[in-house]
Amino acid sequence: MKKFIQLIVLTLFMQAAVAQDVIPGRSAFGIGAYYAKGDFGQDSETTIRYVPATLEHDNGRWGLQLLVPRLEVEGPGTVLLNLGGISRAVASDEITVEQGLGDAVASLIYHFDPLPDRQTFVDLRLDVKLPTADEAKA
Fold first, then answer.
1. How far apart are CA 116 and CA 87, in angstroms?
2. Rounded distance, CA 54 to CA 64, Å?
3. Which residues contact 72 (CB under 8 A, 6 or more apart)?
4. How many whole angstroms separate alpha carbon 84 and alpha carbon 102?
5. Is 81 helix (H, G, I), strand (E, B) or coil?
6. Residue 73 and residue 58: Cα distance in Å, rounded?
7. How far, in Å, CA of 93 to CA of 74, rounded?
8. What residues contact residue 77 under an 8 Å CB cut-off, 6+ apart?
């Protein structure tokens, strides 16, 4: 079931990316969600909730995007994560709950002209990770 939900979310994101047209002066706000629960090869289960908020502005060929994620991880410190800029790999049998902001990501995007079939497009993207996560939460 977990894989099925992940596949649906991924498919929705892919369809949104393929269907988008670049409209000059367009701004958009979006919220996403990712949920996973499993043992991930460990003795205890881990639950991951990831909710990114995105603000983006396109102005012709150029675009700006800011992604600020909220992350919650419940489980032992034996699962390696890299969602929202928080990486965690601390060995522990204790079940803990850590939550808060992950690292934000600011992006500069250049939109090339669509290919002749008008179905395929290419963007060049520069991402800068902003250290907004709490280091004490690992």
1. 41
2. 10
3. 47, 48, 49, 50, 97, 98, 99
4. 5
5. strand
6. 33
7. 12
8. 88, 89, 90, 91, 92, 94, 96, 138
pLDDT tens, per residue, the chain with 138 residues: 555 455 444 444 544 444 455 556 889 999 999 998 988 777 788 888 999 999 999 998 999 999 999 989 888 766 655 554 445 555 566 788 888 898 899 999 999 988 887 778 889 999 999 998 887 775
Please state, in angstroms and rounded to a whole number, the distance separating the CA atoms of residues 16 and 30: 11
Q: Would you give the distance in Å from CA 97 to the centre of its chain?
A: 20
70's CB contacts (< 8 A; 6+ apart) are: 50, 51, 52, 53, 84, 99, 100, 101, 102
